Amino acid sequence: xxxxxxxxxxxxxxxxxxxxxxxxxxxxxxxxxxxxxxxxxxxxxxxxxxxxxxxxxxxxxxxxxxxxxxxxxxxxxxxxxxxxxxxxxxxxxxxxxxxxxxxxxxxxxxxxxxxxxxxxxxxx
Length: 124
Description:
Blueprint: H1 2-15, H2 19-38, H3 40-43, H4 64-73, E1 75-77, E2 80-82, H5 90-105, H6 113-119
Antiparallel strand pairs: 1-2
Helix pairs in contact: 2-5, 4-5, 4-6, 5-6
């Protein structure tokens, strides 16, 4: 009986969400998985990085379009090095950015697959 009640409660919660809310939740959940698998080793699960070695990303002001390119291409500069992630697809990057916005950016907007594809146009 308890399981039936929990299932009914979960269904009613999901049924009350709009398509946009459900899509956002999917992006955040998948983005968290992608982040843990591809970013957390350096930037840590909490996004605080490791002091001067890997920067914190919790207060990043990098625009989403530029962040998409940075994630895909990486960067070498005097201030540090970030490896490229060529195996990540546009949807993976869109989900990571949406997760980061949700978790640390106070921005509940999805950075969509289409926006990511446009941002990555010409990037290999």
